[in-house]
Amino acid sequence: MLLSQTAAGTPARVRQVHAGRALCRRLAELGIYPGAMMTVLKNDHGPLVLEVLGARMAIGRGQAEKIEVEAQ
Amino acid sequence: MRILLVGTPNCGKSTLFNRLTKGSQRVGNWHGKTVECKEGKCRAGGADISVTDLPGTYSMTPYSDDERAAVQAVQCGEFDAVVQVADACQLQRSLFLTLGLRRKCRKVVVALNKADEARRRGIEIDESLLEREFGSRFVLISAKTGEGVARLLSEAAAVAKGKPGGKLEGRGCAKKDHRMVRHAIAHCTRQPGKKGGNGADFALLNPIIGIPIFLLVMWLVFQATFTLSGPATEAIDWAFSSFGEAAAGLLHGAGAPGWTGSLLQDGVVAGVGSVLVFAPAIFVLFFLLHSLEDTGYLARIAVLLDGLMGRAGLPGRAAIPLMLGFGCNVPAIMATRILDSGEDRLATMVAVPFMSCAARLPVFTVFAGAFFAGSQGAVLLFLYLAGAASGLLTSFAFRKLALKTKRSELAIVLPDYQIPSWGPVLSQALLQTWEFVKKAGTIILACSVLVWFLASMPQGAEYGSKESYAGAIGSAISPLFSPLGFGDWQASVSLMFGLVAKEVVVGAMSSAYGAGEGELSSIISSHFTPLSALSFMVFVLLYVPCIATIVALKKESGSGRLAAGVAAYYVVFAWLASFIFYNAGIALGFA
Fold this sequence. Notes:
- The structure holds two protein chains of two kinds.
- By secondary structure, chain A is of the alpha+beta class.
- Chain A has one domain: Roll (SH3 type barrels).
- Chain A contains two helices and five strands, in the order E-H-E-E-E-H-E.
- Chain A has a five-stranded antiparallel beta sheet.
- In chain A, a hairpin with a 2-residue loop joins strand 3 and strand 4.
- By secondary structure, chain B is an alpha/beta fold.
- Chain B has helices at residues 13-20, 65-76, 91-104, 115-120, 127-134, 149-160, 174-188, 198-205, 207-228, 230-253, 258-276, 278-295, 297-304, 306-310, 319-324, 329-334, 342-349, 361-371, 376-403, 422-456, 469-481, 489-498, 504-513, 520-527, 530-542, 547-557, 560-587, and strands spanning 2-7, 26-29, 36-44, 47-53, 81-87, 108-113, 124-125, 137-140, 189-190, 411-414.
- In chain B, the strands form two sheets. Chain B has a seven-stranded mixed beta sheet with strand order 2-3-4-1-5-6-8, with helices on both faces. In chain B, strands 7-9 form a two-stranded antiparallel ribbon.
- The interface between A and B is medium-sized, with 27 and 31 residues.
- Strand 4 (55-59) of chain A pairs antiparallel with strand 10 (411-414) of chain B.
């Protein structure tokens, strides 16, 4: 399942990030890397709001389409 | 001794910097043109310490210009110690940066800031256990209250004097790093369950509730910036015009030639005044913007307006400088500093001058009143929308053709909501206002003297009349404006004066046409047709707003070439727009 399709309120674990090296590293530094846990807080239109590493963050929809997750 | 302050955005770095270096701060430029860092001095343990506050960064692999500047400063090694400021309430992200820092350099001390707030929330942190995990000193401090700051400085001095911990070896791997950070958090800290707070975000990030709130906040900022600063601006205006008059009178009384008094009054004093009138608005605006940044609200605006502004290739935050442009372009261009990347800043600042500022309004009111009585509102609305559309179009084209990059997609941490720390907010606003006066002042003053020279020389010519150099230039360039419908020298001269400030256009026009009080609108009705009046308004809307705006563009972009280039672009754009508008009007039979 893609992160962009994950409903709000769902805890999820990252399976894979389908992106180039630069973006993968950037996302990893923000706490999004294979194996990382997150909770989707908002996913309707525009950027998604997630809870990662104990803090809230927002990422664009285009990036969320590159992140494969499994709901926990 | 020289120390660098490094930390994630919103970790309280500026508060610590402010506490350390009270009153000795200045802005320095580092490695990139659009990136600035603050420097200051303090004394501790009998030694002078110079402190550099670097832009906030989440990691040691840079992503934006600001982050790159911070990383390069650490890499080039011109310092005795690095103090990483970490938010004790959001330790996980900060520790990730600690790992990155420790791979680049040995001399790191970590200041666990907001210790008082962490205690209040029931978070316990064991400094010595953290030290064992990461191999650098950890010191609990509170930049707000001053707790632990003295100890932090003595630890920094000890690290600077030698016995640094070993460097962390190997390249970082996100997975391993996170495992290490999770381990450290589990072993060295005790945190109570996190409480929610999603309610505020739910409202602020929801377009239906959030956009009206955003508009309300913007309206308040706008009102405060241009109303609160109003009395101060008027006082400065009044003081300078009466001082100029008095000084000219004094010179005249002492028997000096007439032109010296005029130079002093209309050139120098008026020029200095025209720089200082911007200062109150810039100060109030920066105070409010830094406060909003501190509360965490600006990060929400970036999310809320991401989709909307994204269509013009701009980040969500760009809506703020663009809207401020309707008040005054100069502070609006300076407000592009709230954007994270240099490219976003450039793409936004080139659009700002098309936002119709308050100074253009008198021109529109006079012309719309003379030709479109009864439907002035519609004319004004058309002009404001046309300006905004031209701005967004320009920004879009600039990104595509000049920067040749795509807008970077949003990926930001939403900081916790908090009350701003007023000390740093105030000192930052003061510092930036002073920087504007100092840097922009000389150029604006020089231009003001030049305009005085053109308007009142050769000797004996009436100020701004046809016999003056300005009048001669106006007559010479007026054929350029014939195809736009306003080819007489009076129109050209007032447009030239409009380069100094748009407020002057109406006055310059009155004196060029020899119009007395209240006669201008009947005089222009005989010199313009409704169509050429509209064409003139379109030109005034779009051509260079004023010299101060171009100076601000140069200062904020760090490139004189860029500023000159876009200034030329504005004039050409305005000419073409007016030309198409006027000739389409004639073709459609509106002449």
